[in-house]
Amino acid sequence: MALRKIINDPQDFVDEVMEGIVAAHAGEVRPLTTDLRSLGRCDAPHPERVAIVTGGGSGHLPFFLGYVGQGLCSAVAVGNVFSSPSASLIHAAASSVASAAGVLFLYGNYGGDVYNFDLAADLLRAQGTRVRTVLGTDDITSAPAEQAGDRRGVAGLVLVYKAAGAAAEALLPLDEVARVAQKAADRTRTMGVGLAPTILPAAGEPTFELGPDEMEIGVGIHGERGIHRGPLESADAITDRFLETIAEELDLLDGSRVAVLVNGLGATPLEELYVVYRHLRSALASRGVSVAHRFVGEYVTSLEMAGVSVSIMLLDDELDALLGAPAASPFFRPGSAGTAAEGTPLRDSAAAAVEVRTTDRPSGLRTLLLGALPAMPAHAEELRQLDADVGDGDLGITVAAGSEAVLRAVSDLPAEASEPTLLLAAASAFASANPSTFAALVGTGLIAAAEAVDAVADRPAGERFATGLGAFTARVSERGGAQRGDKTFLDVLLPLLDSVGAEVDLAEIEASAQQLLADSTPLQNRRGRAAWQGERTRGLPDPGAVAVTRFLTALRRAGEGS
């Protein structure tokens, strides 16, 4: 795996990160040491407030560095990537924020961190400062329950920061702040999964390796090996694994309240975190457990590692109140504690209902649509590839899903449905099936066509067709800004207005569209996302024009078979 990072000299990485943070968040946090490897609250020390000091290796933002602020920690010291800060750095940072209220060291249970924080505590005590220590040991897979004291501290430590920080902000004495922190740590468990490793800037090598379809349950935030490696499972299955394991140690009984933190490890889309939270909330509810505080986002990362962790804290009244207390830092995103409003009616977002109007005879347009639309999904891959060459690749699914939705809508209408009714139903169904620029333009064009056709309902079919097509193209041009020659699907449709007679000859219309498509292919796209490709679009057919031509072919075949 190649090293691809937006950095300068890898040896300067941490120092330049710290320079950037200090410059970006001046007034919110301040450097405490000349090497900028430590940060402190701007209002620390406070004579009556316990100073909570944390720290660890760099590479985990917003972990450690991100939790210095109101209702959180007073100071932080960081080492190189995934490496402990030195005892002298920890001592200097703590001394800068310490007061007569004392210092609480609160950090994750890693060997180097423990040794260096313990040495810093010795130095502080030697100068007369009271110090207590609480370790985060929430990583449930890093050691068995009988060796819980050996477990690593990971994302659950953020919830412990929140509880202990609120206690310190309330000016509770050192022993009480330490008691709260220990209780919060004892009632918190975390489990994670890794999907892809991180690459250390200085080493240029991945911290572990996984196959393209593998996952590692229990992977550590430094790439430590987990407890299970196997085929990638669904989000719900992974979440169930987490909850079942955590519930073996936390008494998640009917009536329990919890705080939940769903954390991205650095390269996991936020959308996937919400997929996990959605199932986790449902699974907890099935046990009778309510989520009082919820945190979803990146709280503890491992550079660009892909994966997710879930932390659960079993609450009592004290912890519930502390987690709900105010907190702020340049990085901290407060969790949510509200409940959904009950009794508020929800509006159906499906395709808008259409007033059904009928005539005294079966609709020829309905027959054509029922015959043509089933053929359109077969063009999904062709349209996807064409669109991917010049745009975002969504046209295939837009046309396929839209055609299927229109087919259902038209099928539900009576055989005698009027042409305006059919066009309005098609507009709503197509635009709603897979909302996109193309879908919206087709939808608004069909609405305009329905209004125009309604005004000439008693005229011959050719005139109705030309009137509807004229209204369709005019509305699309108005909304989308395209003109003839801009290489859009209008280049296929606009010239047809000059060739429609009193009757509709679908074979002639299709043949004209095919020629117009060929004529427009050498042009350069000048509208939509394809226009961003400039000269590269010459020689490539416009995807929307291809879609329209394929539909006219389907209509012609349907007409021949009717």
TrEMBL record:
Residues 363-557 form the DhaL domain. GO terms for molecular function: kinase activity. Keywords: ATP-binding, Kinase, Nucleotide-binding, Transferase. The keyword Nucleotide-binding applies. The keyword Transferase applies. Residues 9-332 form the DhaK domain. InterPro entries: DhaK_dom, DhaL_dom, DhaL_dom_sf, Dihydroxyacetone_Kinase. PANTHER family: TRIOKINASE/FMN CYCLASE, TRIOKINASE_FMN CYCLASE. NCBIfam families: PRK14479.1. This is Dihydroxyacetone kinase family protein. It comes from Brevibacterium salitolerans.
